[in-house]
Amino acid sequence: MTTWSEFTAQAPRIANIFTRRHRATGNLCMLATLRADGSPRISPVEPRVFEDMLVIAGMPGTTKFKDLARDPRFCLHTATVDTMVGDGDAKLFGTVTDLPDKEVHRRFAQALFEENGFDIRGQEFDHFFVADLTSASTVEVADDKLHITIWKPGEGERVVER
């Protein structure tokens, strides 16, 4: 499993753009999952980096989490409204593992409460997904060129210009 610190060490440019865009949208990202029939589903989600894990958790009973429980593959895309991608754009790809550790859940809920006052302390998570990143990419526009940065574990980042 690729931890968040391993990802940021191996892919600093992508991690920086993801973090910047994630913060700029109030932690909002778009999550792509696969429905039972294999067709794609796009859903909003607010992932968090917590204790060196990229956590994808949220409201119980949602179809996006049912999708991930059935097929753990995902794509997480930073939300953007800028068609010129002036501030960059990032996608993270991987699989999730459902972490049943109640003590981690408790610490996560406490950290969330301390961060923004959102109180889910004492509530049970039906799913607490931790991401294992298998690849990532960013798109940036500079000097009238498209700069695409691509990362895979153990390969470092590489930039393609178009």
From TrEMBL:
Keywords: Oxidoreductase. It comes from Nocardia aurea. This is Pyridoxamine 5'-phosphate oxidase family protein. InterPro entries: F420H2_bilvrd_red/Heme_oxyg (IPR052019), Pyridox_Oxase_N (IPR011576), Split_barrel_FMN-bd (IPR012349). Residues 27-110 form the Pyridoxamine 5'-phosphate oxidase N-terminal domain. Transmembrane segments: none annotated. The keyword Oxidoreductase applies. PANTHER family: HEME OXYGENASE HI_0854-RELATED (PTHR35176:SF6). It comes from the Bacteria.
